[in-house]
Inverse folding.
């Protein structure tokens, strides 16, 4: 029911704008419109049921094993990771304050006027970006990590299971400047490592979700959200902030997971891939 509400409310809003004849109700991603953003989010969110169905039909395994070693999404752990991701983000913001202005991390200009279009975008970002982030993590860090990790054994297999999905994740964003590509690749490496360290997708989903919320929120408040989908331009000053945020988050999550004695492997006979108990961990 929760997922249904998250999907139906934005669809009703954007459908209403479209029927009213508003130009921002048209289906477009360049420039981005509210309906266009809904379609992008839902198409990526569709990876969740597709991955679950593929796991069941092609591998004869319960879809829950894609989510974590306990066979389901650990919601309390996900909320904890959102808090840790916020702390790590604050660290990167503090670093941005001391970087040169041309580092590209500053927010310039006045706050945009709040319009019906702004409200529509804000609701879509708030409600559907979580599904979009989850969809990408299910596909790249869920299915691909387990599939690759199940092919190659040992520590080499674990490393390949992290690197290959991270590379494919960065490539999936299309043509982009080298710093932006490396930024996304580093994100993929950290998210993949977190799957191994925590035994599930929750930490990666939390970081992915927060990053996207902040990015679209800033674009909506200070920039032009119609040009914000899949940015391809960036400078090398992106990377210091990315390293501080990603490595800081990795350290925080690993520390809290150890303190909580979080389950990170499973000995279940239905489990396969890098989260099996018999596999060495990163």
């Amino acid at each position: 029911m929760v997922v249904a509400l998250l999907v139906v409310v934005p669809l009703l809003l954007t459908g209403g704008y479209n029927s009213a004849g508003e130009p921002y109700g048209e289906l477009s991603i360049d420039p981005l419109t509210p309906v266009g953003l809904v379609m992008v989010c839902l198409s990526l969110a569709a990876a969740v049921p597709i991955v679950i169905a593929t796991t069941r039909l092609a591998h004869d395994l319960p879809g829950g094993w894609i989510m974590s070693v306990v066979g389901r999404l650990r919601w309390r752990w996900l909320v904890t990771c959102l808090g840790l991701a916020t702390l790590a983000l604050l660290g990167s913001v503090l670093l941005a304050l001391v970087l040169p202005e041309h580092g590209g991390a500053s927010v310039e200009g006045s706050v945009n006027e709040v319009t019906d279009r702004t409200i529509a975008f804000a609701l879509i970002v708030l409600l559907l970006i979580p599904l979009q982030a989850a969809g990408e993590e299910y596909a790249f860090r869920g299915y691909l990590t387990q599939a690759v990790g199940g092919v190659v054994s040992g520590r080499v297999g674990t490393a390949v299971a992290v690197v290959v999905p991270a590379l494919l994740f960065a490539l999936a964003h299309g043509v982009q400047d080298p710093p932006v590509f490396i930024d996304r690749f580093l994100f993929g490496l950290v998210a993949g490592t977190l799957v191994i360290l925590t035994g599930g997708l929750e930490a990666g989903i939390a970081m992915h979700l927060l990053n996207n919320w902040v990015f679209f929120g800033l674009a909506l408040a200070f920039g032009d959200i119609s040009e914000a989908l899949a940015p391809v331009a960036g400078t090398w000053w992106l990377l210091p902030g990315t390293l501080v945020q990603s490595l800081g988050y990795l350290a925080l999550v690993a520390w809290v997971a150890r303190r909580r004695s979080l389950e990170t492997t499973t000995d279940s006979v239905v489990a396969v891939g890098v989260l099996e108990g018999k596999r060495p961990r990163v």
Summary: DSSP finds ten helices and no strands in the chain. Residues 116-151 form the longest helix (36 residues). The CA atoms of residues 25 and 207 lie 30 Å apart. Confidence is low (pLDDT under 50) at residues 1-25, 275-282.
